[in-house]
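Lab notes, practical 5.
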Amino acid sequence: MAKRFRFRLETLRRIRQQARDRQQRTLADALRNVESAGLRLATVTQQVEDASAHTRDDRQQGSLDVASIRTTQLYRGWLEQRLTLERTALARTTAELDTHRAKLGEATKNLKVLENLRDRQWRRHRVEVARQEQAEYDEIGAQQYARKPAENLQELQA
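Output from the prediction step:
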């Protein structure tokens, strides 16, 4: 019976696989953060457009309420600041996403190296087992061949 295949670096392979899985989860979180930042940016952009449309509508109607104009200007200023902050947040989260993608690629590469080594060792093991089995079959065949003339000789003598 041939000995069982044992990959000596299996523990390291499992550790690297766990590291890759952690990176995948981290990348998914970063992707959700980017999507969230994009939605917040879109919301603020829509609010700026709504404020501009409101101001335009007031001007077309001919109502020139100074307090209303001032309030709208302050609100638009606040929205512009928020828009800048959201753009910065989106850029930051996108950069983090790129970093996590690179880390996932590295973790995947490290795991793939061990998996390729394991596959190569498995193929070598299978070749060695096949060679040993063939040697055993050859030995059995040789023993049967050696016994055959003795059996024939015993039959002739009887």
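Observations recorded by the TA: Residues 10-157 form a domain with the Helix Hairpins fold (CATH 1.10.287.1700). The chain has one domain: 10-157.
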